[in-house]
Amino acid sequence: MLADPQVQVNDPRSRALLLSALYNAQEQIGWLSPQAIQQVAEQLNLSPGQVHSTASFYTMFKLQPGGRYLLQVCEGLSCYLMGGAETVLERIHQRLGILPGETTPDGKFSLQIVQCIAACDYAPAIRVNDELYGHISPESLDELLAQLSAQGEGVENV
Amino acid sequence: MFEPVLTQNVQRADSEKIATYLAHGGYAATRRALLEFAPGELVEMVKQSGLRGRGGAGFPAGVKWGFMPKDPNIPKIVAVNADEGEPGTFKDRLIIERDPHQLLEGTIIASYAVGAEQAYVYIRGEFYSGYQRLIQAIAEAYQHGYLGQDILGTGFNLDISVQRGAGAYICGEETAMLESMEGKPGNPRLKPPYPAQIGLFGLPTLVQNVETLACIPHIVLRGADWFASIGTPESKGPKIFSVSGHVNRPGNYELPLGTRLSEIIYAHAGGMREGKKLKAVIPGGASTPVLTPDQVDTPMAFETLAKVGSQLGTGAIVVMDETTCMVEAARRTAKFFAHESCGRCTPCRIGSQRLYETLERLERGAGLADDIERALYLAENIDGRTFCPMGAALVNPARSTIQKFRSEFEYHLEHGECLVKLH
Ligand SMILES: Cc1cc2nc3c(=O)[nH]c(=O)nc-3n(C[C@H](O)[C@H](O)[C@H](O)COP(=O)(O)O)c2cc1C
Ligand code: SF4
Ligand code: FES
Fold first, then answer.
1. How many Å lie between the alpha carbon of A58 and the closest alpha carbon of chain B?
2. What is the spatial distance between Cα B4 and Cα B12, in angstroms, rounded to a whole number?
3. Using the beta-carbon criterion (under 8 Å), do B161 and A17 form an inter-chain contact?
4. Which of A57, B185, B303, B362 is most buried by its number of CB atoms within 10 A?
């Protein structure tokens, strides 16, 4: 966040605000719609193409809508060694019926494979939205999924 | 007994708060640096300490500070690399989340030493709680007069802002990080010019890793000689080793550089899980060549690991026991690098993909007769032919694993299955 109040839109530094502007836009509706890209472009005096090329480079910017909870399963080496990755993905598939890249029909869960998330000391690790969960076992995963499923409407945590 | 230096605060309750930090001697180093030393003296001190970068490349920090132009009329920038993406590494996360003021002190002192009035922390996008703590810590530092205008009445001004990355390993490479900070895709820049010449927004920029900067306050307080008395001839000071994989107690262990790998695994990390036999160790993060059990007494230092054909890297130790399929370990890491190639140059973009496909075929038991040779040939032709050091990073694990565990690859090729079964 280059929250520098002096930065003017025509300052070369204004483009530096792009990543934080994209985060802000993404927070509004959970993803970066073409309209959101357009708005960010107008805010920073950039072309939508410039905004899109940056947004699409980074895996944390979502150019498609997803579920309320984004389950990110680490498939890094340390998580694999500790019995994670594929086994966690399988369990999620059994429980929710989704594969990586998919969203449950009720719009609650999306699934994504990620690389080492610097939590190898808690391997196997997963992230759900911005929360980290470590030492994932089939049982703790079931518990977590049940908890998230039960959580009321409107619990947004992007 | 070695007394922890960089991690001395992390176990305290509320260790991230400035009140806790101040109660344990926090910001004394900043006072000392700004009130008692001229900037040039600090550059000299850091040179004397022998501190080398902890972000992977091991470049002498003081030398890099000395590269920054001396002309006070040129605005300069300090950019803190908190992108921590090297698989197996989780040391910077510890400092950011549990002792952010230590990092801020290092940043303030470095900025004063090189004459920068603006510093940025580029933090990995996934580190959301670290990001929040850092923002909070910066606000506290402003309130206490360690940031802002005329710090401690010295006339020195410094602002620090935080920018979040957004999920791209390559943005840990310093020039890609600068591109990302400018709001662009993270494609590395050609070097030279180095960031100290032309960096962020075209201004001279000092890029330094989190752990490197965390060493600075201690050097200021206890002296360059004290720092240089820890470690080996070419690797000075304390180091946080992130240990993961098949050990009883995975975690961060702060020890002097030069501590033997075997001591870290067996004495500190509690030894092998379930008493199993050690098979392989990655000593410095996923991009460093793998070691075998006969090399486990190697001291964890830049020069000693280079001597056995590997690297200290980030000091992230990944331990694999006898149940590990090395073909799968190589495949997995190759997949990571293929995914993270920024796509700018062909040997890395296409080479990493072909290398992954080759290892994937072998792992799956569908290897072609010449796939082992193909993987080595690809490694040979990627290494040294890429735009940025990612090329070397990506071939290291694949090539070293094939060289050291070739029989496992051959078994996969002949039998279409694994010599070992995991778990
Ligand atoms: C592919 C690649 C990834 C890197 N990732 C990181 C990283 O996540 N964190 C880091 O501090 N340095 C990383 N580096 C090293 C930086 O380019 C740079 O050398 C370092 O930030 C300088 O700081 P230091 O001298 O304090 O280590 C990476 C280098 C390469 C080639
Ligand atoms: S070596 Fe890889 S990461 Fe580096 S510039 Fe080339 S494609 Fe990008
Ligand atoms: S390998 Fe999964 S967190 Fe590092």
1. 5
2. 13
3. no
4. B362
